[in-house]
Design a protein that fits this description.
Layout lengths: L11 H5 L4 H5 L5 H6 L5 H13 L10 H21 L6 E2 L3 E3 L10 H12 L6 E2 L4 E2 L4 H11 L3 E5 L2 H12 L5 E4 L5 E2 L3 E2 H8 L3 E4 L7 H7 L5 E5 L15 H11 L2 E7 L17 H5 L5 E5 L10 E5 L1 H8 L3 H5 L3 H16 L3 H4 L1 H7 L2 H12 L11 E12 L8 E9 L3 H12 L5 E2 L1 E3 L2 E5 L8 H18 L1
Parallel strand pairs: 1-16, 2-14, 6-9, 6-10, 10-11, 11-12
Antiparallel strand pairs: 3-4, 5-13, 7-8, 12-13, 14-15, 15-18, 17-18
Length: 479
């Protein structure tokens, strides 16, 4: 066995076949792209691709110098085109998870989209008092709308909920400590762990109680003046059975006695009464604020239905202290986020039908009969070949609101099902749909590919029909 044939050794012969950078840059194969995109960093990019080949990332280099050069040029060309055409783009979410974090969470309604576009096209009075003609506070209208929607004394917007928790906790600790139940030290998507945030933000974190049972006396035994009594929403999970946790009202009463601050990390944060729509398990922001809690933090792109943001509402005296925290400047949001939040809150406060105008509310509460009618409209337009390698059907299904909300609450739904001859065929079909110009993300169940319509926007139905007809034709012809 030669050194070049050793799987663990360097491919010496292949390395000698790699052409120099200038040879690649001057090749006729690359000339059209270089002429079309003269500002692209060609030299730097080609060097990176060569480093990949030298490291063995793309396997052993086969053939002579001309074959190796051709292989490298194909890779360079393919990577440049991929950078130009791919990356983040619109997809159709047929997974049945409405607030799908991997797919960008909430879809914005028309009014919010218009407000964002306007803020991008024009200068805005971000920190200008138009009547006085001088500098003023940052986005006072958005904060006033937020305060009114939450029924709170004061409000603040930062860049996400983790930042909101960090900012609040770091404001009051030190000198105070953070007291939190062991059953609420959550981990959510992307290996984000609350204990890690608290460890960075707080001088001293005191864990109390047990995983399943924590009592108000556990807080009372350790609480001192100035401490933060932190309650955390159990995002993405629910503990059932032999459990206990004190209600937020008991924490508020204890805080008044001990001269502490109560902070509730509400997670998703709903301004809409989902209980009336038949979906239970989430507290409304306004109801939490009315308990007398000091601060409430939540996300802007979950149940609120807007863009990524961290929302802080609560008592004015506490938020005034938070505003003095130097970190606030590092965590503040730009005009685009403010425009989106402002437009969304106006739909809640002034809109005639927020439950239909705000997509996440409409998606969560749309009657199953409507979904079934949409499914029938899609299926009736699908053209199946006579060999019936695929069967198409409409079935009852369940969806999830997602985003860490309603962890154990399913929402009735309807799915369009493509039933394949085998599980392998279903996997291949789902992949084919993911790789369309407009990717469709589905769910595989056995040999079925399911498109859950609760997470598909109604204006995407015609596009779904076109994509299904394309992939169905390919798969039926291929057997």
């Amino acid at each position: 066995m030669t050194q070049s044939d050793d799987k663990n050794g360097p491919d010496r012969e292949g390395l000698r076949s790699i052409p120099p950078v200038d040879d690649l840059l001057g090749s006729p194969e690359l000339a059209p792209l270089r002429e079309q995109y003269p500002n692209f960093p060609w030299t730097y990019f080609v060097r990176n691709v060569l480093d990949e080949f030298r490291s063995g990332k793309h396997g052993k280099l086969r053939g002579g110098r001309s074959e190796v050069k051709s292989a490298i040029l194909r890779k360079v060309t393919a990577d440049v085109i991929e950078l130009r055409d791919l990356g983040m783009r619109g997809v159709i979410n047929a997974t049945g998870v409405i607030l799908n974090t991997n797919l960008g969470r909430a879809v914005l309604g028309e009014g919010v989209r218009d407000a964002v576009v306007s803020a991008m096209r024009h200068y805005v009075n971000l920190e200008v008092e138009l009547e006085a003609g001088k500098r003023g506070p940052r986005a006072p209208a958005a904060l006033e709308l937020l305060r009114l929607a939450a029924g709170a004394e004061s409000a603040m917007i930062v860049n996400n909920n983790a930042a909101a928790v960090y900012l609040v906790v770091s404001t009051f600790s030190p000198p105070g400590r953070v007291i939190v139940s062991r059953g609420e030290l959550v981990e959510i998507g992307g290996s984000f762990r609350l204990p890690d945030i608290l460890e960075k933000a707080a001088g001293d974190v005191v864990e109390i109680g047990t995983t399943n049972r924590t009592y108000i006396d556990d807080y009372a035994q350790v609480a001192k003046p100035g401490d933060v009594l932190l309650k955390v929403h159990s995002s993405n999970y629910e503990i059932r059975g032999f459990t206990h946790a004190p209600p937020i009202t008991d924490l508020v009463a204890l805080a008044a006695k001990k001269r502490c601050h109560v902070v509730y990390d509400l997670g998703s944060g709903s301004f809409f009464d989902f209980e009336r729509a038949g979906i239970s398990g989430e507290e409304r922001v306004k109801d939490v604020v009315e308990t007398g809690v000091g601060c409430v933090t939540m996300s802007g792109d979950k149940l609120l239905g807007g863009v990524q943001a961290g929302i802080i509402v609560g008592r004015a005296i506490l938020l005034d202290q938070i505003r003095q925290n130097p970190l606030r400047r590092a965590l503040r949001v730009d005009k685009i986020t403010i425009a989106a939040v402002q437009a969304l809150l106006r739909e809640y406060l002034f809109g005639a039908h927020p439950d239909s105008d705000i997509p996440v509310l409409r998606q969560s509460t749309e009657p199953v009969e409507n979904l079934r009618a949409r499914a029938r409209g899609i299926v009736d337009k699908i053209h199946l070949d006579d060999d019936q390698n695929l069967q198409i059907d409409i079935v009852d299904d369940v969806a999830a609101v997602g985003g860490g909300s309603f962890a154990c609450e399913d929402v009735a739904s309807v799915a369009v099902v493509l039933r394949c001859r085998s599980e392998n065929k279903a996997v291949a079909l789902a992949k084919s749909m993911r790789l369309r110009q407009r990717p469709v993300l589905t769910r595989i169940k056995g040999r079925e590919v399911r498109l859950n319509l609760r997470s598909v926007m109604p204006y995407e139905d015609d596009e779904v029909v076109a994509i299904l007809n394309a992939v169905v034709g390919e798969n039926t012809r291929g057997g």
